[in-house]
Design brief:
Number of strands: 12
Low-confidence stretches: none
Bound molecules: flavin mononucleotide, 2-Ketohexanoic acid
Keywords: Flavoprotein, FMN, Oxidoreductase
CATH superfamily: Aldolase class I
Radius of gyration: 19 Å
CATH class: Alpha Beta
Strand order of the largest sheet: 4-5-6-7-8-9-10-11
Mean pLDDT: 96
Protein name: Alpha-hydroxy-acid oxidizing protein
Number of domains: 1
GO molecular function, one term: oxidoreductase activity, acting on CH-OH group of donors
Family: Belongs to the FMN-dependent alpha-hydroxy acid dehydrogenase family.
Distance between the termini: 41 Å
Organism: Kitasatospora xanthocidica
């Protein structure tokens, strides 16, 4: 194994070196000045760990059950559109890797393999992410297909009434290459994503046409009535919205700022986590994504109250560099690092990872 691949940062460099610049920019980029994107990472550096000693750590066990899904560790892959942008196989390779690692996969509504192909490749827990389309019949049909194919939960993304101003994509006039399609949707619905126009993002144009910006809390009942699957809201950053989510009967919330790709200047995801955790009943799972790049990061998010943590971009770095094996390497590195962190922290069980683990990182003078 090349020495650089001992960390996710090494895998990131390898992916950067081999992907076309406009694909790299689409994946890596955030919105606006990328303040939120940068801050997502920086927030982890504000926490120091408080290790306890003389604790038996001969068995560190990060296994858990999440909304009925058995996981070998509290880790999953965040929903991301178009995995075939970086690998000819795409989501089926990602699904096999997640299954082997005992991690969750949240497939995206804009997956480039069919929901059924992904389900057939998956050997572990699999959920489906949805954006709320103006055409509700399309949404209803996807929900039915997801149930029939054995998906275990629906994740409704609520931070995207429109797509953030992603300046890299605007500069590149980014369009999804015609060979890579959102195959679960009618081709007419996604045509705008493939239209390259100078100074515009195909994805933003497409979302402007198709996403319903009028969606509000009362509409959730429509989705609830159509499914027996647990419902997760993705993109919650405030205590106010967390309380509303509970009032509207959701089964879990996912604290996320969409990896800094939506509202630039939004709170770093890790900074939003405690207020959401404190606002919901203890039994409601709070999930987290945004900037997690190591087992230490995972442990910090868990200590702040996340039940499980998702990674976005790192899974695509792994997929770009080595297909299924690359994604598996990313997940396995995170597992190895988490177990290592739990051992050296003297916290061998997930339940031991609470706020007593954390102290503020001492600020450098000046
Ligand atoms: C290339 C890419 C595509 C994404 N597509 C979606 C999507 O289709 N639906 C969604 O809810 N979130 C999407 N996201 C956001 C991720 O689910 C997740 O919130 C974010 O990537 C987490 O941050 P991280 O990349 O720092 O781990 C996407 C992110 C990336 C990088
Ligand atoms: C219309 C698909 C948008 C996917 C994406 O880039 C994101 O959600 O960040």
């Amino acid at each position: 194994m090349p020495v650089g691949l001992l960390t996710l940062a090494g895998i990131e460099r390898a992916a950067h070196a081999q992907l076309p610049p406009e694909i790299w920019d689409f994946i890596e980029g955030g919105s606006g000045a990328e303040r939120t994107l940068t801050a997502n990472r920086e927030m982890f550096g504000r926490h120091a760990l408080r290790p306890r000693t003389l604790v038996d750590v001969s068995a560190c066990d990060p296994a858990l059950t999440l909304l009925g899904a058995p996981l070998r560790l509290p880790l999953g892959i965040a929903p991301m559109a178009y995995h075939r942008l970086v690998d000819p196989e795409g989501e089926t390779a990602t699904a096999r890797a997640a299954g082997r690692a005992g991690a969750l996969l949240v497939a995206g509504m804009f997956a480039s393999r069919t929901l059924e192909e992904i389900a057939a490749a998956a050997t572990g827990p699999l959920w489906l992410q949805l954006y709320w389309l103006r055409e509700r019949v399309v949404l209803a049909a996807l929900v039915e297909r997801a149930e029939a194919a054995g998906y275990g939960a629906l994740v409704l993304t609520v931070d995207a009434p429109r797509i953030g101003r992603r300046l890299r994509d605007l500069r590149n006039g980014f369009a999804v290459p015609s060979a890579v399609r959102a195959v679960n949707l009618d081709q007419a619905l996604t045509a705008a994503s493939h239209r390259a126009t100078a100074g515009r993002s195909g994805i933003a144009e497409h979302a402007r046409e198709q996403f319903d910006p009028a969606l509000s809390w009362t509409d959730l009942a429509w989705l609830r009535e159509r499914t027996r699957l647990p419902l997760v809201l993705k993109g919650i950053l405030t205590a106010e919205d967390a309380r509303l989510a509970v009032e509207h009967g959701v089964d879990a919330v996912l604290v996320s700022n969409h990896g800094g790709r939506q509202l630039d200047g939004a709170m770093p995801a890790l900074a939003a986590l405690p207020e959401v955790v404190d606002a919901v009943p203890a039994e409601l799972p709070v999930l987290f994504d945004g900037g997690v790049r190591s087992g230490t990061d995972l442990a910090i998010a868990l200590a702040l109250g996340a039940r499980a943590v998702l990674v976005g971009r790192p899974a695509l770095w792994g997929l770009a560099t080595d297909g299924e094996a690359g994604v598996h390497r990313v997940l396995d590195l995170l597992r190895e690092e988490l177990e290592h962190t739990m051992a050296l922290l003297g916290r061998p069980r997930l339940a031991d990872l609470d706020r007593t683990v954390l102290a503020p990182w001492p600020c450098p003078a000046g």
